[in-house]
Design goal:
The protein has one helix and six strands; from the N terminus they run βαβββββ. It is mainly beta. The strands form two sheets. The chain has a three-stranded antiparallel β-sheet with strand order 1-6-3. β4 and β5 form a beta hairpin. The longest helix has 4 residues. It is elongated.
């Protein structure tokens, strides 16, 4: 469990279409084997330290001709941003993917005074 130390909780969120390979015959749609896409996300403001980031699928358009396989993650999380990651493998064919994310962490509060 991560405990916040009396600071203000900041929440940032967003959504990103990671790829759309159906239109252009990209490797997620016509390829096979291990495939991966990444996108760097920048938070609207920096957190005091690396926040907790939750990623979810908000859209995926998948062929019904094979097994459906997906691995999604937030990687390389820092106080300023992270990388959205989508992976698939073998015969899975993915036309489009949109991922949503939400980050929770400590932020500085200019209205909070530090009394010495």
């Amino acid at each position: 469990m991560r405990k916040l130390k009396g600071r203000t909780l900041g929440i940032d969120q967003g959504e990103h279409q990671l790829f759309s390979d159906f239109e252009n015959g990209g490797d997620m749609w016509v390829g096979s084997g291990p495939r991966e896409r990444r996108n760097k996300i920048k938070f609207s403001e920096a957190f005091l330290s690396a926040p907790v980031v939750q990623v979810s699928l908000s859209l995926w358009d998948v062929s019904n001709g094979g097994n459906i396989r997906a691995d999604i993650a937030a990687e390389k999380v820092t106080d300023k941003g992270f990388e959205l990651v989508f992976r698939t493998w073998q015969d899975t064919k993915i036309a489009r993917v949109r991922l949503s994310w939400i980050a929770f962490g400590e932020i500085d509060d200019e209205d909070q005074w530090d009394v010495v």
